[in-house]
Amino acid sequence: MTEPIEEVIVIGAGAAGLAAADALARHGIKASVFEKEAHVAEPWRQRHERLALNTHRDMSYLPGLPYPKGVPAFPPKAAVVSYLETFAEQRGIAIEFDTEVERVTREGNQWVAHTNKGSRRARNIIIATGHDKIPWMPDWPGASEYKGHLIHAARFGSPKDYEGKSVLVIGAGNSGFDALNYLVGAKTAMIYLAARAGPSILPKRIGKIAVQRFSRVTNALPVPVGNFTVALVQRLLFGDLRKLGFAPVKKGGISRLKEDHVAIAADDGAIAAIKAGRIKVVPSVTGFTTDHVVLADGSTVTADVVIAATGYRTGLDTMFAGLDVVDGKGMPKTHGDQPSSPAGLWFISMQPSIVGHFYAAGQEARAIAAKIAGQR
């Protein structure tokens, strides 16, 4: 018996998936929402206790539902989990939990989501599984023999776990600086930062002003002007980071964000710790021995813990095996309300944005819902 054809299936019940389901409902379209976990915001629940958004609360809510009074400027983990639960409940979004989509295929003019509970057909499928689904790190020579503790930044844990230990953070992107911002408040031994290129980084605050609140202005600028603005603010506030041991910046911050999907890092104490000698910047990592981390200049570092802040993969290459809809790194070839080929496949919030994940998800959800409604 052939499954009934649904109008829309949304895969993923995080901020982007919830925003998509809500936007569709405003057009009178009821979507089926699949979530592989047992709860809303499960990835947030599993992250470390100190985790908080780097985006201001005024830029971190979904359309029509601001954070309640009393939530800090940069919402912490518990506030985000509570917010997403409340949004789903208030908007009446029915979520099919423990439903994992293993692959998506195309049959005729329909999309088929093959789940652990059977197959479902739809005219449209919205992928809202995120660009940071699977932690990724390079296959460094000798890493498997290293006696120290090598982890991905996604498994950071608690800053208390690092007390008395020497730590090497690999990667000067957003997650690398997040780790450093937390580590400088712990009683660690020496902290090292290995980076291939200088960072694009802005402070969380200037005085009491959250810098991210100006992101919509920066986002509206032409890319070259945005690059110049970010570089100028960085230079005025932090000075020449090459004097701290960083390599030159190879590409502007906005260009890296849009072309390479690398978010601009947020500083909350790490740069001051580098200037004070609490953190030492070293060359990039090329491999490991049993006892040491080998650097690009041939020198070595000894660290009790190595944190690889080396990014994530989407996992979409497996989900869409055999379909020419993602590139070699699993990034979708279309995004937001851009039309896919074949039609009816939509990818939401699959790229980092200077305006923040929640704000961008809300904007993209509205655009996608309008396009789907226009097809009826």
From TrEMBL:
Keywords: Oxidoreductase. Coiled coil: none annotated. Signal peptide: none annotated. InterPro entries: Auxin_biosynth/cation_transpt (IPR050982), FAD/NAD-bd_sf (IPR036188), Flavin_mOase (IPR000960). The keyword Oxidoreductase applies. It comes from the Bacteria. This is NAD(P)/FAD-dependent oxidoreductase. It comes from Mesorhizobium retamae.
